[in-house]
Amino acid sequence: MTDFMLSEFPDDLAELGNVATFPAEPKIPEQAAEKRRKYRTIWISDVHLGAKGCNAEMLIDFLDNTDSETMYLVGDIIDGWRLKKKFFWPTSHNDIVWRLLKRAKRGTRIVYIPGNHDEMFRQFTGLNFGGIEIRRAAFHDTADGRRLMVLHGDEFDAVMLSHRWLAFVGDTAYHLMMTLNQWVNRARQALGMPYWSLSKAAKHKVKNAVEFIGKYEEVVARAAGERGVDGVVCGHIHTAEFRNIDGVEYWNDGDWVEGCNALVEHHDGRMEILNWPEEVAGRDAEQASEELAAETAKAAA
Questions:
Q1: How many Cα atoms occupy the beta-carbon half-sphere of 228 within 13 Å?
Q2: Torsion (CA) 54, 56, 61, 65 in degrees, nearest 10
Q3: Domain ranges of the chain
Q4: Spatial distance between the Cα atoms of 217 and 10, rounded to a whole number of angstroms
Q5: Which helix (H) or strand (E) holds 8?
Q6: What CATH number was assigned to the domain covering residues 6-300?
């Protein structure tokens, strides 16, 4: 049984389970579907809706520029820990939920695997809400015949398993850093500089964090190997990565707080980790180049 239930939240949070509370149309209009990149499968996790650190606008841009036959929501989509402390739900977070429900309505198979921050939804495992399947874990067969286990990954976090109180303390410190990260990126945006993750840079500099991530990846890959699958897809640690560990593929689809990453499967089975800030920067540069070329051609005419 989960540590807290939806009934323990304020009435406005409990209403998030009612699809009817969401507007008929999003505040940020959805882009035309025919312009999107088409993938066989998309994995995203650690969105943390309900937390101020969520990069909602970046995720909306991703959803409006990609599509897939199947989408896996690999945990921590909603941040119940933050919402339990203080309710925060801007219209951009509504817009994300609207897009996911709309995607399911259009025929995309969406599988939601709750994580530790949205564990209150684990009690609904096996049910279907608005076309979104809720599962404790899943298995995915790629187009080229590989079998992948899909799960959030907190099951293999020693801190979560042995010292749950420490995980809550770490969560508070982490969100303080996310607040600082927001201010840093507002200043960078004002200066015309691209998005940059403060916490991601810090994690790669701190030896203990690097060691924890490495050990975590090995434990998850070993567990997948014991289950006889070819690989595993998880989230949880906010670090997008691919490693081949003793013949087992380890994929982490990252997050939408720090790195803004997604894992995608192409129609031939090829897997790729997308860094969306880099994709946006490349798209903006290409558009600027095209506009400059058009202006140059017009001036020469």
A1: 0
A2: 80
A3: 6-300
A4: 36
A5: none
A6: 3.60.21.10
Q: Which amino acid is at 164?
A: R
H helix or E strand, kind and range, residue 137: none
Residue 71 CB contacts under 8 Å (≥ 6 apart), including other chains: 41, 42, 43, 44, 100, 103, 108, 109, 110, 111
| pLDDT, tens digit, 9 for 90 and up, residues 104-133 | 999 999 999 999 999 999 999 999 998 999
Counts of helices then strands in the chain (DSSP H, E): 9, 12
Cα within 13 Å of Cα(237), Cβ side = 26
- Closest residue by Cα to residue 39 from 124, 187, 140: 140
| Rg for the chain, CA atoms, rounded | 20
* Token pair 């995980």 in the structure block, residue: 167
Measured between alpha carbons, how far is 225 from 139 in angstroms, rounded to an integer? 13
pTM as predicted: 0.78
Contact 209, 238 (CB under 8 A): no
CB 167 within 8 A of CB 250: no
For residues 93 and 99, is the Cβ–Cβ distance under 8 A? no
HSE toward the beta carbon, residue 195, CA cutoff 13 A = 22
Instruction: State the DSSP code for 32.
Output: P
Higher pLDDT, residue 181 or 5: 181
